[in-house]
């Protein structure tokens, strides 16, 4: 096992996520330190494995766990279906070794890469001074002491990767909340402030939010690509005179760390998206896939999809939206599988489609997406299906709902499939008639021609009258006319078309609606 830094078992589990590793036994809790991953080989002597993450392929046994405990292995990882989980958990507790389960679809090579990349958070890194910083936290402390202010290192998702703990340095509530939640708190000024830092090649002063201390920030880059940011708080005393140079050196030192962390995150995201894609299509062992996401296979689920109002989202935007969904569901302790497929963010949620909380969460996420990414996003919610086996049907419904809320016949940003039957019908009719002359032909064409020739406003009057459900007094009020004036106008229109004929009225209403002349709600 190579000499690398270590992370706690809790960091390993939280960073990889429930869809990559699932705890079966934690005899010493989440505090033990774990080191480099090792793929188990029964032919090799088990030496030098102190603190290792042992990846046991094949069929694990209680004997293997006992030997792992004797060799100082911190964690053993197995795959469900190849063993009796309860028996192995008992053996792991006896051996004093943590036991985790990985999903069958994840290759051992992929898991090895994920664990190895996560160790970058504590791998050696260049210190901006003459010494060496043991990890990102040590780097944050070194920089904080040199600049004279508390320091935080963040990734592009505004997650706090490391922070300084220098005694006596003041921090404000914004920094305190970021440390406790390991994520920068939401604030309306965040998008503009972070965009300014990421646009700059050097340091940038940030004075927003005004109620908190000013901050000196710099982007961390590798080969021109932004990887994260470093922030130094200026409290009661000014920062050091060379603070800008120190932050620039720190950004260079942090770049290898963040590059490997991003690699781990990208690898985990790709794997998660691949698994989600199979679950959305109903391909493979869907029950096992659902279990790997923490979804009970036999319980009802609802599919939610988010996409831009027009065009296709880029990969970063879609991934960011999926991350926002995942965070929102976790905050409410709602089980969900989230990810990206075909340029959209998807979620398979263990909740009823009609649940007010599901719609509220979706609306909140859309609001944050608009603040962070700009543009206009919409969300479609499928009907609740009986189990994950029926998810493909829920996907089709969610996509139809998204198509409807992005179309001409709905003004709401979020729509459930069961509420959108009329909009979907109108969209299908419009698509079928789009290239045909009947869409703008008679009877509407006769009224339109009369307006053009005589300067009348019969089409508008019909639009309002039909939108008012043929209520003459109500339509006259909307048109600022006397009801008798509108009745006279309708009689004149009746000389052009058979306005008393129910079929004529139906066709005229459809022509007006499909041509966009009428608006939802009249």
UniProtKB/TrEMBL annotation:
Gene3D superfamilies tied to this protein: PucR C-terminal helix-turn-helix domain
Residues of the CdaR GGDEF-like domain: 285-404
Highest taxon listed in the record's lineage: Bacteria
InterPro entries: CdaR-like_regulators, CdaR_GGDEF, PucR_C-HTH_dom, PucR_C-HTH_sf
UniProt-listed Pfam families: GGDEF_2 (PF17853), HTH_30 (PF13556)
Family: Belongs to the CdaR family.
Protein name from the UniProt record: PucR family transcriptional regulator
Organism listed in the record: Nonomuraea typhae
């Amino acid at each position: 096992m190579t000499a690398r830094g270590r992370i706690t078992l809790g960091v390993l589990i939280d960073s990889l996520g429930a869809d990559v590793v699932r705890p079966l036994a934690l005899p010493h809790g989440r505090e033990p330190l774990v080191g480099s991953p090792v793929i188990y080989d029964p032919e090799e002597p088990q030496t030098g494995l102190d603190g290792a993450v042992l990846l046991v392929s094949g069929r694990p046994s209680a004997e293997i766990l006992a030997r792992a405990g004797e060799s100082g292995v911190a964690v053993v990882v197995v795959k469900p279906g190849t063993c009796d989980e309860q028996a192995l958990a008992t053996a792991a507790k006896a051996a004093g070794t943590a036991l985790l389960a990985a999903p069958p679809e994840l290759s051992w090579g992929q898991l090895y890469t994920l664990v190895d990349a996560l160790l970058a958070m504590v791998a050696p890194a260049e210190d901006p001074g003459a010494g060496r910083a043991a990890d990102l936290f040590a780097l944050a402390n070194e920089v904080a002491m040199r600049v004279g202010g508390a320091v935080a290192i963040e990734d592009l998702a505004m997650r706090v990767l490391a922070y300084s703990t220098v005694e006596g340095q003041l921090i404000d509530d914004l920094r305190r909340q970021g440390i406790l939640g390991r994520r920068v708190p939401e604030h309306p000024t965040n998008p503009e402030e972070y965009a300014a830092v990421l646009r700059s090649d050097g340091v940038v002063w940030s004075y927003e939010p005004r109620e908190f201390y000013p901050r000196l920030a710099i982007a961390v880059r590798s080969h021109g690509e932004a990887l994260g940011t470093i922030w130094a708080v200026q409290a009661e005393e000014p920062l050091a005179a060379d603070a800008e140079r120190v932050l620039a050196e720190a950004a260079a030192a942090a770049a290898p760390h963040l590059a490997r962390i991003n690699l781990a995150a990208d690898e985990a995201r790709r794997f998660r998206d691949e698994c989600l894609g199979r679950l959305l299509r109903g391909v493979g062992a869907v029950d096992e896939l659902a279990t790997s996401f923490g979804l009970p296979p036999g319980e009802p689920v609802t599919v939610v999809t988010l996409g831009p109002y027009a065009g296709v989202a880029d990969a970063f935007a879609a991934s960011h939206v999926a991350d926002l969904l995942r965070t929102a569901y976790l905050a409410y302790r709602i089980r969900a599988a989230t990810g990206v497929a075909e340029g959209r963010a998807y979620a398979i949620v263990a909740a009823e489609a009609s649940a007010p909380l599901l719609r509220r969460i979706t609306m909140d996420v859309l609001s944050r997406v608009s603040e962070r990414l700009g543009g206009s996003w919409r969300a479609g919610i499928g009907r609740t299906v009986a189990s994950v086996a029926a998810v493909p049907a829920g996907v089709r419904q969610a996509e139809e709902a998204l198509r409807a809320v992005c179309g001409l016949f709905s003004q709401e940003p979020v729509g459930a499939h069961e509420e959108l039957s009329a909009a979907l019908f109108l969209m299908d009719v419009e698509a079928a008639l789009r290239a045909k002359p009947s869409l703008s032909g008679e009877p509407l064409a006769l009224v339109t021609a009369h307006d053009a020739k005589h300067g009348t406003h019969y089409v508008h009057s019909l639009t309002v009258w039909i939108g008012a459900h043929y209520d003459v007094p109500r339509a006259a009020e909307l048109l600022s006319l006397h009801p008798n004036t509108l009745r006279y106008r309708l009689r004149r229109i009746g000389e052009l078309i058979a306005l008393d004929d129910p079929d004529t009225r139906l066709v005229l209403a459809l022509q007006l609606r499909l041509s966009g002349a009428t608006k939802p709600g009249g």
